[in-house]
Write a structure and sequence with these properties.
The complex is a heterodimer of chains A (327) and B (558).
Chain A: H1 2-27, H2 33-39, H3 47-57, H4 64-76, H5 91-126, H6 131-145, H7 148-162, H8 182-219, H9 222-229, H10 234-261, H11 266-271, H12 277-286, H13 290-318, H14 320-326
Helix pairs in contact in A: 1-13, 2-3, 5-6, 5-8, 5-10, 5-13, 6-8, 7-8, 8-10, 9-10, 10-13, 12-13, 13-14
Chain B: H1 4-21, E1 33-37, E2 70-73, E3 78-81, E4 84-90, E5 95-100, H2 114-126, E6 139-146, E7 149-154, H3 161-167, H4 173-176, E8 196-202, E9 206-211, E10 225-229, H5 234-242, E11 248-249, H6 256-259, E12 268-270, E13 278-283, H7 293-302, H8 305-313, H9 335-340, H10 348-357, E14 361-362, E15 368-369, E16 377-383, H11 387-402, E17 406-412, H12 414-423, E18 428-431, H13 439-447, H14 469-479, H15 484-501, E19 505-509, E20 515-517, E21 521-522, H16 544-548, E22 552-553
Classes of the chains: A mainly alpha (327), B alpha+beta (558).
């Protein structure tokens, strides 16, 4: 318990640091939100409009430290203000629109690639020099090494544009009403195949390789030999003795990956016109939308910290050594 | 532990496969629903406030839900009476009297009146953040004399102000008088006079607007609804366009003949009239040697504009003439001034001679130096990521280097670039120009002493810091002139001043992007039927209304 509490204290400090960086970083960019909005119009907006824009956003000349204190106070109350790019929607509701799809898209992609990659890693390590071990790692690592943008475009062009097997954009068809119906679920799944598939393909190699390598090291250790010598069933040796221990590094990465899920998958969202946080963040940066940027960064930070906290808990359960030192 | 993932994975994968397998194939939208792609957003935020200056309101708000008094048709160069039917100057040009249209109703059935006009303008006065056109800089008072007459009292005689008034979107008093803060009001259930006012559906990915049941044009609009899919970027929008999922768009499409038209020549069409903002090369006239008009003209002569429009704009435009006027001002262009402007051709020999005469001579290494010995070494500023500008800047820099001027392209992020440009901290930069129904706004921001701020003070326009007494005289006279013939004479005068003094170096008139698919709808403006500007991007002053009320679904699908 003390272990968990100590970790919690650490997370509180990390959270405050993130909040502070959050505040100052966007303000280092030259210009202001009104100017950034002006850019979109390339002269189609009258110069009087820029003045009016500044007035709209209430750009205050208050000293930075006072802005910072107000910001901290508001953040603690969960009030992130009004978005500039999506004026006059509050930041939280803007983030809300994208959050669900990000959770679904990036979340399922991470879970699938972690589960599949780890499993393949176990298989590759157990049947070393088998066909899984011979073919999968090089192929997957090769695919992972290609620029993601390019792979995604290729998938979109080949499977969506050329063969017309999958839709070319959006999370669901424009004609269908969102709801808990089979038709809607089917539609969402069809739209998710290319985006999710492309992310999984790009990440599978890493999961596989790290699992396989740790697994091989573990398989050579004494206690595994002992388990074998005792004549335990191979499946039991692989899963209970070897895989469980070899899983630790992958669980850490999984926690990290899960945390970054909320950052969205910017490239995926752009290529497949998929709604989500990543694109929102890009919009926010383009428009110098400080409130929105702060809101999104905070959500990401909290997610990363939260996922790490979960990993801490899972570690306690997976690794008796930590349990011993903690208690 | 690790026995669980495979099963979950397999189950997930299987569920995906089955679900994806039974999803319906791509369906076309209903035959009378027009699909438009103008804004590029990943998801929609519900905002139909036509007065907020932020670009946050959805596209149909300014020219679909709400309407102005008069619509300027930039393709025909004329004012089309809309909610106003007549306007006249009184009291020696200090009062503008507008007669409003009878029989117009708001989409909730209540009648529209001149009182709504006066109310809207009073709102702009009370909330300066809403005064996007800056009308209260020249207005003194707005009064409704009766239900159909409204009078605008001016602080000074300022005829171009009538065009700003004409373009203002009008809101109903009976709804907006109850809105506590119209600046942050999202107006989710709009009540307007426009052709499309009923929100049929609003989701993050798509929204639809249905017809106004009380629209004042009988039998219009013929389109039953507008549908706006959220497409996050140019690539996604172009893909949807090419796939017949969008009927009308205002994107930049590279190599459009091959990419779009050739896929289905019978239905896919485009028209890019050169009515956009003219793109200029601005030279800082407060810095030597650009204070010398011979140098500015020499720079212009050094540019191979034919190559520039090919390289930068895929040949979608043509080199600008020396007046800088785009085709939106065809009716104003003075042929004598154009003929006088012989400094927009590509003529390195003459450019070289002009530079020599200005005292910028080549040294032993071929590099030109100012009379005081400083080398001619300049950055051409442009915005990173605006690839057309970057390519244009490369062509320009190459032309200058051939003349012995060490010019380099320097790209900045937009905000940083804008800061440099606004404060006059540059030697050479590419930039846009300002538009309005008459060339007044255009030249006012190019060479008026009223718009010239000192170096270091941020200026909205006139970044090159140029003023000319001759231009001031012509502009001031234009502000007071209501007679069209005299206006044209004064505008010709402005053009002659511009052409002889070369305050800035025009590059090319910007195209107005418009792609349309005539497979399901007819009536888009085109080269053959140029009744209005074809681009959905021309919404700010309501021009899109001309198109929306004209489009009609094809009765028999082809």
């Amino acid at each position: 318990m003390r272990f968990l509490l100590r970790r919690l204290g650490f997370y509180a400090v990390a959270g405050w640091v993130a909040l502070t960086v959050n505040f100052f970083l966007p303000r280092l960019i030259p210009g202001d939100p009104a100017t950034a909005l002006f850019a979109r119009f390339q002269g189609r907006l009258s110069p009087a409009a820029l003045q009016a824009l500044r007035a709209t956003f209430g750009l205050t000349p208050a000293p930075l430290w006072r802005q910072y204190l107000t910001y901290l106070a508001h953040a603690l109350r969960g009030d992130f203000g009004t978005s500039v790019a999506y004026f006059p929607s509050p930041v939280l509701s803007v983030i809300g629109t994208a959050l669900v799809w990000t959770l679904f898209l990036a979340g399922s992609a991470v879970v699938i690639s972690f589960a599949l990659g780890t499993l393949l890693g176990v298989v590759a390590a157990w049947w070393r020099r088998g066909w899984v071990d011979g073919v999968m790692p090089p192929v997957l690592v090769f695919l992972g090494a290609l620029p993601y943008f390019w792979v995604a475009m290729l998938a979109l062009y080949g499977l969506g544009f050329g063969l017309r097997w999958f839709p070319i954009g959006h999370a669901y068809s424009d004609d269908i009403r969102p709801g808990w119906t089979v038709a809607f679920a089917a539609d969402v799944a069809a739209h998710a195949v290319l985006p999710v598939g492309s992310i999984v393909l790009a990440n599978l190699g890493g999961w596989l390789l790290s699992m396989r390598n740790t697994m091989i090291a573990v398989l050579g250790s004494e206690y595994v030999n002992l388990a074998r010598a005792k004549g335990l069933h191979p499946a039991r040796v692989v899963l209970r003795y070897a895989a469980r221990n070899a899983l630790l590094p992958n669980v850490t990465s999984f926690g990290m990956a899960l945390g970054f899920v909320l950052g969205g998958s910017l490239l995926t969202e752009i290529v497949f016109a998929y709604p989500g946080q990543g694109y929102l963040l890009l919009q926010a940066v383009r428009n110098q939308d400080y409130p929105l940027m702060q809101g999104i960064f905070l959500v990401i930070t909290l997610a990363v910290l939260g996922a790490n906290w979960l990993v801490d808990i899972v570690y306690l359960w997976l690794d008796p050594r930590i349990r011993d030192t903690a208690s | 532990m690790s026995r669980r993932p495979p099963r979950t994975t397999l189950a997930l994968a299987a569920a995906f496969a089955t679900l994806a397998g039974c999803a319906p194939r791509r369906a076309a939208p209903p035959p009378d629903v027009l699909v438009v792609s103008q804004e590029q957003q990943a998801s929609w935020v519900r905002n139909f406030n036509p007065l907020t200056t932020a670009t946050a309101a959805r596209w149909p708000t300014l020219a679909g839900i709400y309407e102005p008094l008069f619509v300027y048709d930039s393709a025909q160069g004329r004012m089309v009476p809309w909610l106003g039917i007549a306007r006249e100057w009184r009291d020696a040009g200090r009062v503008l009297r507008v007669t409003t249209r009878a029989g117009v109703r708001w989409s909730d059935g209540r009648p529209f009146s001149a009182g709504d006009v006066a109310f809207t303008f009073a709102l702009l006065r009370r909330f300066p953040a809403l005064d996007r056109r800056g009308v209260w800089s020249f207005l003194d008072d707005v009064r409704a004399l009766d239900d159909r007459t409204v009078e605008f009292h001016f602080r000074r005689v300022f005829v171009p102000g009538a065009d700003e008034i004409a373009a203002q979107q009008l809101v109903p008093e009976h709804v907006w008088s109850a809105v506590p803060d119209p600046v942050t009001f999202a107006n989710e259930h709009p009540v307007g006079t426009g052709p499309f006012t009923e929100v049929r559906t609003f989701q993050h990915q798509v929204f639809e607007l249905g017809r106004n049941p009380y629209y004042w044009q009988p039998g219009r609009p013929k389109v039953r609804a507008l549908r706006m899919p959220a497409l996050p970027g140019n690539d996604a929008a172009n893909l949807a366009l090419i796939f017949d999922q969008v009927d009308w768009a205002g994107n930049f499409v590279p190599a459009i003949d091959r990419v779009y038209v050739r896929r289905e020549p019978a239905a896919h069409g485009y028209w890019f009239p050169l009515t956009g903002s003219t793109i200029f090369l601005y030279a800082n006239t407060r810095r030597a040697p650009f204070d010398d008009m011979r140098v500015r003209k020499a720079l212009s002569l050094a540019i191979d504009r034919a190559l520039l429009v090919d390289v930068a704009l895929y040949g979608y435009t043509r080199p600008a003439d020396a007046t800088g006027l785009s085709d939106a001002y065809s009716g104003w262009r003075d042929s004598a001034a154009v003929a006088l402007g012989d400094w927009v051709r590509h003529d390195p020999a003459r450019a070289s001679a002009l530079l020599d005469s200005a005292g910028c001579r080549r040294d032993a290494h071929g590099l030109r130096r100012l009379p005081d010995g400083r080398p001619c070494r300049y950055d051409v500023l442009t915005v990173s990521g605006w690839s057309d500008w970057v390519r244009a800047a490369e062509v320009i820099a190459r032309g200058m280097r051939a003349l012995g001027i060490d010019a380099r392209v320097r790209t900045y992020d937009f905000s940083a670039w804008f800061e440099h440009v606004q404060e006059g901290a540059f030697d050479l930069t590419i930039g846009w120009s300002f538009e309005g129904p008459t060339p007044y706004t255009f030249y006012h921001w190019l060479m008026s002493s009223e718009t010239m701020k000192p170096i270091g003070t941020a200026s909205m326009g006139n970044w090159h810091r140029f003023a000319s007494p001759a231009a001031d005289r012509a502009l001031a006279a234009f502000e007071r002139e209501t007679d069209p013939a005299a206006q044209h004479r004064l505008c010709a005068e402005m053009q002659r001043v511009f052409v002889s003094e070369a305050p800035a170096i025009p590059l090319y008139p910007g195209p107005s992007w418009a792609e349309y698919n005539t497979g399901r709808f007819a009536g888009f403006p085109s080269r053959r039927d140029p009744y209005a500007d074809p681009s959905p991007n021309k919404f700010d002053a309501g021009e899109v209304l001309l198109v929306l009320t004209q489009l009609a679904p094809r009765t028999s699908p082809r």
